[in-house]
Amino acid sequence: MAREGKSKGRIITPKATREITILFYQKLNGAWTTFSEYPRSELETLYACYRAQHFKHNQPDEEVKKEFVELVKRCYSDWMFHIKNPIFKKYTEKDDRYKNGPSFIPTLFWKKMVDKWMDGD
Fold it and tell me: How many domains does the chain have?
């Protein structure tokens, strides 16, 4: 009997979730610290990149896209936490946080993100 595994019945599998996370970090190019700020056009671009990875789906594209958006919405704050937390724990001064942002986020966007996070503290 074949093993069914964790992915049975899921549209977006754990492997696909990992790929979406990687794509998200690669495509982050704005100072969006919350999902509500994240532009729809960026979400569309991210979805197109995901579909280009050739994951197989039996469901219609509308269903896959809906599940994709829900996954991004659920993961967004965690993704932001993993970007922010190491820098904010290590550096307490604003200027130090500015200088030591992640290399995958352009400096201008990173400074805006730091400002938004500090305004929220």
Answer: 1
HEC secondary structure over 20-51: HHHHHHHHCCCCCCCHHHCCHHHHHHHHHHHH
And the tokens for 120? 């929220």
Quote the pTM value.
0.85
**Segments forming the whole domain that contains residue 109:** 14-120
* Rounded to 5°, angle at Cα 99 from 93 and 103: 135
3-state SS track over 39-101: CHHHHHHHHHHHHCCCCCCCCCHHHHHHHHHHHHHHHHHHHHHHHHHHHHHHCCCHHHHHHCC
At 86, list the tokens: 């190491």
**Which residues, 6 or more positions from 107, have their beta carbon under 8 angstroms from its beta carbon?**
98, 101
Band the pLDDT of 10: cuts 50, 70, 90.
confident
